[in-house]
């Protein structure tokens, strides 16, 4: 355990140092994460204002709060593993990682977390600025804030493990981007990024509750905004924990099978 | 190089570092040459620190090995430069060092001298030989440069299209696959026709290169010296490249 901690410390040092080499790129990637929710925020506040100040239980200010928090949660939980592994597997650079006595996922986690650490320095003031400009109304209750922390952590882990597993598709096919695209489209709707899930028709809400997407983005947002009862919050955390176990099992299974079919020549 | 049976020594053996990588059953292995194990944008020393953590190398061992490697490979001025600012040869030296910090007992060298200048090629060769001697490590070298093979390998394995064509000493490879010797004769001019003595390979500047069957070597040499005004004469084994070519040619036939 202490050895793994040492690996993480060194990984953080190297990933932080290399990411700081490209500060402009960092800001550009981050801006993408600001723009997306900003567009939906503008659309929904306009809709809300034109229909008398509220739509489906969300006031204009609550929409603003929803998308600002969503922006932060989405940024905290997103990953770029699918492009990484597509490249690593096709070009054979994965071979080297396989020779090391440490699972390659640890380097990926360190890389992801250090990117978030750097970018949150900018993300947080942007979020506060947007909340002020769009007059977000946020009623924070202490228990919801307390429950938000584990919910966000679980959301990050579940999303990371699932996307890591999905990235392993590259072991079997070289056309990964089509599959990735499908995942992103489904995730966009069912995670609550386009609109709060409660605004969707009932069948879609059911699908969102069964599939992992809501638990990786929408659920922590709803929780922090105080839209859930304590029972709903606890149930949600339990579902997240179940997804965590499932995603880990899936990850192990797919990784083991994938490494077996992997071959790289001349890499 | 020495050959051993590979077994997985997963824990605390030979110096106490875990040596069995997650997915391979080799006891501590590395891959060199084109693999970027150094992080591109930061100094090599930071990648070394990462390797220290990954291979769980105790601080004292790490320091000692790093000092040794820095000394042998003359890394001192390179360690604190971002890897992307290093030349190919400089980067190769750092890659070699990074791969050896945990003192692997089996070393896979895939074209370790490719793209390097002659001086650097020789330095890497000397270093590999020294590593083998000092730590008793098994070195598995793949190379298209026969100079690498001649300088480093006692045991040679020739594989062609996935088939094992030869496995043995370098000298016996020459013995077995080259039925010929090369005789270089220096004459005053290039006028004499020597085709009756053997196959004339080249004839330049008064030097005639002949290929003769090995069994005939002594007789042909004797006749050449008796018949012609020979200034100088040498008898050589054909270059190793030619021998390897012979191996492949025999397989194709």
Notes on the structure:
Chain A is mainly α. Chain A contains 11 helices and 2 strands; from the N terminus they run H-H-E-E-H-H-H-H-H-H-H-H-H. Chain A starts with a helix and ends in a 6-residue tail after the last helix. Chain A has one domain. In chain A, strands 1-2 form a two-stranded antiparallel sheet. The mean pLDDT of chain A is about 90. The longest helix of chain A is centred in the last third of the chain and has 32 residues. With about 250 residues, chain B is of the alpha+beta class. Among the domains of chain B are: about 110 residues, Rossmann fold (3-Layer(aba) Sandwich), CATH 3.40.50; about 60 residues, 2-Layer Sandwich (Alpha-Beta Plaits), CATH 3.30.70.980. Chain B is built from 8 helices and 8 strands. In chain B, strand 6 and strand 7 form a beta hairpin. In chain B, helix 1 runs parallel beside helix 3 and helix 2 runs antiparallel to helix 3. The longest helix of chain B has 18 residues. Chain B is elongated and about 70 Å long. Chain B starts with about 45 loop residues before the first helix and ends with a helix. The N terminus of chain B is likely disordered. Chains A and B meet through helix 1 and helix 5 of A and helix 1 of B.
Distance between the termini of chain B: 31 Å
How many helices of chain A? The count is 11
User: What string gives the helices and strands of chain B in order?
Assistant: HHHEHEHEEHEEEHEH
- The residue fraction in helices of chain B comes out at 25-40%
Give start-end ranges of low-pLDDT stretches of chain A. Answer: none
Domain module tally of chain A: 1
What is the strand arrangement across the widest sheet of chain B? 6-7-5-8
Biggest interface? A-B, 23 and 28 residues
What global shape of chain A is seen?
globular
